[in-house]
Amino acid sequence: MVEKHVVRNGEVDIAVFEQGNPAGPTVLLLHGWPDSHHLWNNVVPELTERFRVLSVDNRGHGESSNPPGTNAISVANFAADYVAVIEALGNGEPVHVLAHDWGSIAMWEVIARPDAQRLVASFTSVSGPSLAHTASWARSRLARPTPRNIALPLAQLGSFAYSGVFSLPVLPQAVIAAGMSEERWRTWLSRAEGAAPDQIHLAPTFKQDMANGLRIYRSTWATNPLRGRAQHTSVPVQIIIGTRDPAVRQSSYSDEDHWVDAVWLRVVQGGHWLPFSHPRLLASAAVELIDAMAGAPQSRALRRARMGVLRKPFEDQLVVITGGGSGIGRETALAFAEEGAEIVVSDIDITAAEATVALISRSDGRAHAYELDVSDEAAVRKHADRVIAEHGVPDVLINNAGIGQAGRFLDTSTEDFQRVLNVNLNGVVNGCRAFAGHMIERGLGGHIVNLSSMAGYMPQQGFTAYSTSKAAVFMFSDCLRAELAKHSIGVSTICPGIVHTNIVRNTRMSGVSPEEEARRQQRYDRLYQRRGYGPEKVARQIVRAVQKDRQVVPVTPEARLQYIIGRLAPGLVRFAAARVRLVR
Fold first, then answer.
1. What is the rounded average pLDDT for all residues in the chain?
2. Most-buried pick from 72, 395, 500, 550 (CB within 10 A)?
């Protein structure tokens, strides 16, 4: 049920729409141009169970009155309206604010007031910076004229340039009257924001709102916002900005911790109208800040977003690793834990996974052990659901679990061949399928690491099943990388060469007796051990690959050499494979 209120501020009536839990804390939703309170239609359902939600129509928009005169619609007047709404409907308590675009810009003016903490308990700002803080940031950069310090303010000024066109007195209104419609605007936003058309909610007064709202551009330029003096605030502020926002650049927020006592910055893989494209993310982010202000422990995402805090490279990030009970998986878990990450370790051998967790715990790290057969798709999906419910969406997923298989193709049974594919290939596919969708939906990017092998691009006798599985992982990763790039989720393919792990002594040997299999396993394990390249070196390469978003990483000198030769002279590689048998 929606209850409408009208708040009088001078000669202007402000329409406010109340929903949700009347006994809960109040959350105030504010919009910008050319929207109305309908902007929040996708967000409100995420809040109403716990919170009393007030959605405002700005003056000149929706069901609020439209005062005459260019200066009647301005940042200062929006701010005054918001104060009037809080004082009239805030139940005598400071409210939590979630604001977008001009609504956010005006709220920055409110929290700069000396009595701001009486009015606002927390402020989540979406795609709407403080004009005064942005001007101060630009002036500080231009005062130290390096190429970068000149380029960044000029780039932000270029992003604001559209507002100069919008501030013209006649042309924008004429264009709107002649060519704009709800359908055209919705189609454009859907393409630009990646939101379904039915998720873009416009008011019945949309076209008139668009024309009325243009006055805020004229009034803002008339007051010369670049002269604004930055004010300090003690209100906790969470800033959310899209990577594809055409109007606001992340760099312009660089100095916010100078002006705000407690400030968090989240960068979302999206555009300007995040309430349409990422409603659940905005709601959950606002709730995380509200809960933290109420004394609850800060979420991992909120801790990571805190500005002005020095931290380790992967501090407050969640890393999920399959096959983490030994070898490369264990060393990778230890390496990421050392860099500050919280680790989820899974292995088909739960005792081994718990041993890895114990090693991490001894160094005051945080880790959790799970039993998992990666070849079982249903089990992997169930595992992902549990991990996300208990620990959150991973920032890094490492599909490491794998098994060895050696022997001639005709000596390898169908069952053994399929077993290798099920673990080495399907295990990777299952992990990506179970977690990648959640990483996309979260909208904060991330990274996936898939363990292939030098064998994936080096044909050789005696490793048909193993090499086939690793080659498939290699190509799968290439394809996945292309698909996930638009979501800022990197994919690294790690290709170790001769590395001493327990996979060697556990490799099945087809076509030989059990006694001969054991002899060969021991022999190759000794050879790999003498090679002197341990899994901890691979782990360091994996950490570096995630940090630098490296795509294909051959590990060990022979893997790098083989990768180069395979690309430059593939015929030579095939010639050698036909004449050299490595497994004997």
1. 91
2. 395
416 & 527 share domain: yes
Together in a domain, 294 and 347? no
Distances (CA, A) of 513 to 415, 466, 517, 518, 544: 17, 20, 6, 9, 42
Residues carrying an active site annotation: 466
Residue 71 CB partners (closer than 8 Å, separation 6+): 77, 215, 219, 222
With contact defined as beta carbons under 8 Å apart, do 425 and 452 qualify? Answer: no
pLDDT digits (tens, 9 = 90+) for 194-210: 899 999 999 999 999 99
* pLDDT band at 66; cut points 50, 70, 90: very high
- What would the mean pLDDT of 100-127 be, rounded to a whole number? 97
**Whole-prediction pTM:** 0.84
Residues 6+ positions from 8 with CB-CB distance below 8 Å: 14, 84
Residue 117 lies in a domain: yes
Domain tally, the chain: 2
- 310 part of a folded domain: no
Evaluate whether residue 288 is within a structural domain: yes
Alpha carbons 250 and 233: distance in angstroms, whole number: 20
CB-based contacts of 216, cutoff 8 Å, min separation 6: 33, 73, 74, 75, 78, 102
> Is 294 in the same domain as 404?
no
Instruction: Please write the tens of the pLDDT for every residue from 41-63.
Output: 999 999 999 999 999 999 999 99
**Residues 6+ away with beta carbon under 8 Å from 433:** 377, 380, 381
Give the structural domain span for 301: 3-225+232-305
Domain end residue (candidates: 282, 305, 328): 305
Over 70: is that where the pLDDT of 235 sits? yes
Structure tokens at 219: 């009034």
